[in-house]
Amino acid sequence: MSYWYIAHADELLIDLDNYMxxxxxxxxxxxxxxxxxxxxxxxxxxxxxxxxxxxRSASEKHYQAIVRLNQSLDVIVRLTWQLHLGSDLYRGRADxxxxxxxxxxxxxLIMPNKIDNFYRPPDYKCHCTEKHDxxxxxxxGSRACHIWRKVRGMSPWELFGKMEKTxxxxxxLPLGCVPMELVMxxxx
Length: 188
Description:
Elements: E1 2-6, E2 11-16, H1 29-43, E3 49-56, E4 63-69, H2 75-84, H3 89-100, E5 108-111, E6 124-126, H4 134-140, H5 146-151, H6 157-160, H7 180-184
Helix pairs in contact: 2-3
């Protein structure tokens, strides 16, 4: 079973990858980065935070933070705060692009388990037991997860272009105006 939490106007959904990675001080990255930034936002009256939830992700050493606010925020403001508070950069860029393209549910959290004692139920649930890999779901077409099709339904390359997953050799780019042939060059 998978539980889908779509960001409401008064919520920030933050994907904290490598939360336990130690910093120079030895403190886990998530503690130092996320907590310092949210504390500064609260103390400087930039965010009116009602509560913070921290839950384990399906991936090891990764966590999800849900910040419940006392006010509703515009979607772009919410997505910007999510990035500032340390959410995964790819997820943040994809969320911003989905919002700009008016996709439904630009920011969401898919959990393998319901969040215990959470203040609201999940928005959707499906019977999928594997991670909802976007490329795999797209390949499944009409057999893809019905919730994924409803709230996501696009391939990863529709947002930013299809990237090759092959090794390349280094192509040195000069300072100044870079010739487009160097930008486009692929060395194997």
